[in-house]
Amino acid sequence: MTRRAPLAGLAAIAIIVIEIAVFVGVVKLVGLLGAIGGIVALSLVGAWLVPRQGMRAWRRFRHAARAGTPPGGQATDGLIGLIGALLLAVPGFVTALIGAALLTPPLRRYARGRLDRFVQRRMSALMAGDLFGPRRVRVRRTRSGYQPADPVPDRPARDTRPAAIDAEIVEDG
């Protein structure tokens, strides 16, 4: 059991409590039948979107793999769309709002970038390169400049290389 499991349980309980509070507020605004009708309608839209988002993601992933381009971006984009559709399918106004937000292009791009970085940090550089393509690495200088750990006699004390370089990370073995 991981250390995050209790936090996941508390988060699930918090989501349920928030959903109930929002449902009660909606019932006060539109009545019980309107609130139930809204939840049913949102869940039906989510259930309709789930297979479509899944198939769209699968087609884009296969197309990228056949074209010889790294399919990781299409995989994470499809996963974000599928998660959004699943959240819409779950009964509740808050989860439906989050799911609908994940289906909008700006938030979907943001979530995709975050998921890409999360996945890449947890896999080897070689595997991440195969799945997502070469990484772009930004090197920043400090105020004192770049100082190698073991100074090379032929090199001046202060390195004059540019502040940013394009690089590909490769692991041996």
Look at the structure and give the mean pLDDT: 81
Alpha-carbon distance between the two ends? 31 Å
Derived structural class? mainly alpha
User: What is the approximate shape?
Assistant: elongated
Please give the number of β-strands. 0
What characterizes the major β-sheet? none
Rounded to an integer, what's the Rg over CA atoms?
23 Å
Which bin fits the share of residues in helices?
A: 55-70%
Compute the number of helices.
6
Summarize the structure.
The protein is an all-alpha fold and 173 residues long.
Keywords:
173 residues, mainly alpha, 6 helices
Describe the structure in your own words:
The structure is a single chain. The protein has 173 residues and is mostly helical. Helix content is 66%, strand content 0%. The chain has six helices and no strands. Helix 2 runs antiparallel to helix 3. The longest helix has 36 residues. It is elongated and about 60 Å long. The two termini are 31 Å apart. The model has no long low-confidence stretch (mean pLDDT 81).
